[in-house]
């Protein structure tokens, strides 16, 4: 093909439409990755920050490299491009081969997106924007036909709806992760499994221990050394069963003349509460039960409470003396010769 024929190939000089289409595609690729790590590896999607997000951005490019060429080869478009009526094909109207689409995608990732490397990505996006604004063919589009069906107003509405739906999907993933593996009436083993599930989800470690199938603390097999600031012991749970299923869960902590500071038992109470209440029928997708339970317990550190959620009644009575209270700990008072701490926690299925 002669150079002047290549220059006549249709091109789309709408930088913002192209950028938004690309953004939507990347959102979809990222959602596929988040769904995978959420339900296969049980990674807490809501807790991903900093370097996790950087890793996610690079994994998104890997998914893009695998999926986008296939979409272009099969459909001449991608979900984001389809919203704006964008199509990519050969000059004769035929579909790109998978190899041609792969080469184009790789050039887009490098020359257009800067491999998602911070700062360099912005530089490449800015240069691509300027070229497109000046009606210059982008390097990766020089041998292909890039067309747009129309620029009607409703395409913007579709895009906004798709963008909102992506947030709903993320929220649904986060909410689904708060539903424990066991629902309904619980045996002790199922309660323990739920408890350990939430402990891993919220990345809460208790002296490197977990609950076994009998509801007893067991040491994990680990060669790593963990330093603990708290001197608290893990509470031993007591269970009341009916026909083999749990109706009541409780524990009691009592210490006298303790020389060390005391951490709150909020985390143990939260995990136990979620393990029990999360199994009830009231706990569904998008349920606010976990949030309300966590708030009730965290807002009453070293204080008693009495509330009901998900068909479960939660009661905590705390009594202490000889300590002065900080935001996060009870510290022995130098003016007191004796210290005393008692905590009684219970859950009852109504």
TrEMBL record:
Subcellular locations according to the entry: Membrane
InterPro entries listed in its UniProt record: RDD
The keyword Hydrolase is annotated on this UniProt entry: no
Primary site of residence: membrane
Bilayer-crossing regions: 27-45, 57-75, 156-174
Protein's name in the database: RDD family protein
Record's signal peptide: none
RNA-binding found in the keyword field: no
Classification via Pfam families: RDD (PF06271)
Keywords attached to this entry: Membrane, Transmembrane, Transmembrane helix
Any single GO CC term annotated in Swiss-Prot or TrEMBL for this entry: membrane
Membrane topology, from the record: Multi-pass membrane protein
Domain RDD: 14-166
């Amino acid at each position: 093909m002669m150079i002047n024929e290549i220059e006549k190939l249709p091109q789309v000089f709408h930088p913002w439409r192209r950028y938004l289409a690309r953004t939507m595609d990347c959102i979809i690729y990222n959602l596929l990755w988040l769904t995978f790590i959420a339900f296969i590896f049980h990674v807490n999607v809501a807790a991903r920050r900093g370097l996790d997000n950087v890793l996610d951005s690079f994994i998104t490019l890997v998914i893009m490299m695998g999926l986008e060429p296939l979409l272009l080869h099969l459909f001449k478009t991608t979900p984001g491009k389809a919203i704006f009526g964008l199509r990519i094909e050969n000059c004769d109207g035929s579909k790109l081969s998978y190899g041609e689409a792969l080469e184009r995608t790789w050039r887009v990732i490098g020359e257009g997106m800067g491999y998602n490397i911070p700062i360099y990505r912005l530089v490449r996006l800015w240069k691509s924007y300027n070229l497109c604004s000046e009606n210059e063919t982008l390097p990766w589009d020089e041998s292909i036909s890039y067309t747009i069906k129309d620029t009607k107003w409703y395409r913007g509405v579709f895009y906004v709806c798709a963008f909102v739906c992506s947030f709903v999907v993320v929220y649904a993933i986060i909410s689904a992760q708060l539903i424990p593996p066991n629902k309904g009436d619980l045996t002790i083993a199922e309660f323990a499994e739920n408890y350990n599930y939430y402990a891993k989800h919220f990345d809460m470690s208790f002296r490197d221990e977990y609950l076994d199938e009998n509801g007893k603390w067991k040491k994990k097999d680990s060669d790593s050394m963990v330093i603990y600031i708290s001197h608290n012991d893990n509470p031993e749970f007591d269970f009341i069963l009916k026909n083999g299923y749990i109706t009541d869960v409780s524990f009691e902590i009592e210490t006298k003349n303790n020389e060390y500071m005391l951490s709150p038992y909020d985390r143990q109470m939260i995990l136990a509460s979620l393990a029990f209440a999360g199994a009830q029928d009231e706990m569904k997708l998008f349920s606010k039960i976990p949030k309300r339970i966590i708030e009730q317990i965290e807002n009453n550190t070293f204080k008693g409470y009495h509330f009901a959620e998900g068909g479960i009644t939660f009661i905590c009575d705390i009594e202490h003396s000889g300590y002065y209270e900080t935001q996060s700990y009870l510290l022995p008072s130098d003016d007191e010769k004796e210290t005393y701490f008692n905590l009684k926690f219970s859950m009852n299925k109504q």
